[in-house]
Amino acid sequence: MIISGEIVAHNVGPRDLATGTTTTWETITLGFLVQHTASTRASYANDLRLYTRWCHEHNIDPVSITRAEINVYVRYMEEILKYTRSTIARKLSTLSSTYGYAVEEDHITASPVQRVKRPKVPSDSPRTGPTKDEVKRLLYAAREHSPRAYALLNVLIHNGLRVSEACGINIEHMRYERGHRTLTIYGKGGTIKTAPLTPTTVDAFTRYHGNRNHGPLFLSDGGKRLTRQAAWSIVRTLGRTAVIPDHLTPHALRHSAITGALDAGVPLRDVQAFARHKDPRTTQRYDDARESLDRHPAYTLAAHFAINPEGVDADDNP
Fold first, then answer.
1. What CATH code would you report for 132-291?
2. What is the mean pLDDT of residues 155-161?
3. φ, ψ dihedrals at 230, nearest 5°
């Protein structure tokens, strides 16, 4: 739960339309965040902390901010923080939802984000994650690193979990069902899904948790539930050990899992269920990114218009 003061208003807002009391940014953000699950709340809270800090540094009250000032915030993310268009679009989506909540609750009359121009995000997914060979190097590195790292990598790759989903696993979430060892996944937006665990993953889990039969599967060095930040650190360490050239993140492993399933010939509809995508177009973007280079017309045209490297083709002789 987000505690009071984690996201605070540095200025007092206008009078609340419904109650006549003073509305603060803290009132709005806490009311908005409490509606969501822990993992979603953490993501939204991170976006709102950045925005609140920027407003404070520029002596702007988030409750009465203007569209022009939010456009300045967008330029700040683009030019100073060097965020990608997809990251900026996501952070603006968080603000839009927060201010939308404020309008619904009669804290403000209109959302200042409503007509802010969003950056255009490419329809295809620009990243496909580590390659098949790189994933294998990561698994070898994880096995040498520690039982915890190996268990974490197995479930991130074989089940395509988001890092928050992996960190949220409890040992009692694992069951037997119709001959399968299964895992109950508490996912994004409060969704609950059941997925089979491969024998390799089950073995990695068992070697890691030993005789423990309840509570968090993944523990920190201090014996508490592993945080998302600690899981990121493990993955980055393994990436350096396996000499993965790009900056490795847990979500990149999710990309590898989804594109790997498509490469292996799993039907798109089944991959959508595996990835727990509500919209099939989300899964399609992974497929588009995977094949956009392989099937690019440039290769076909090069063959179609190929010339004889030794000189004029025989067919072209007069």
1. 1.10.443.10
2. 90
3. -70, -40
Find the DSSP H helices in the chain. 25-33, 38-57, 67-75, 85-104, 132-145, 147-158, 163-167, 199-209, 228-241, 250-263, 268-275, 280-291, 297-304
The answer to whether 15 touches 107, Cβ cutoff 8 Å, is no
pTM for the full predicted model: 0.60
CB-based contact 217:205 (threshold 8 Å):
yes
Flag whether pLDDT at 20 surpasses 50: no
Cβ neighbors of 187 (< 8 A, separation 6 or more) are 162, 165, 193, 276
- Residue among 151, 155, 172 nearest 163 (CA): 155
Task: Note the pLDDT of residue 271.
Answer: 81
Q: What's the pLDDT tens digit per position in 84-109?
A: 888 898 899 999 999 999 998 889 99
What is the spatial distance between Cα 49 and Cα 6, in angstroms, rounded to a whole number? 8
The set of long-range contacts for 217-223, using a CB threshold of 8 Å and a minimum separation of 24, is 217/151, 217/169, 217/170, 217/171, 217/173, 218/148, 218/151, 218/152, 218/166, 218/167, 218/169, 219/148
Q: Are 98 and 115 in contact (CB under 8 A)?
A: no
pLDDT at 137: 93
- What pLDDT was estimated at residue 124? 52
List CB contacts of 160: < 8 A, sequence separation 6 or more: 254, 257, 258, 261, 274, 275
What's the sign of the alpha-carbon dihedral 38, 42, 44, 45?
positive
- pLDDT at position 51: 95
pLDDT of residue 270: 84
Any idea where the domains of the chain sit in the sequence? 12-104, 132-291
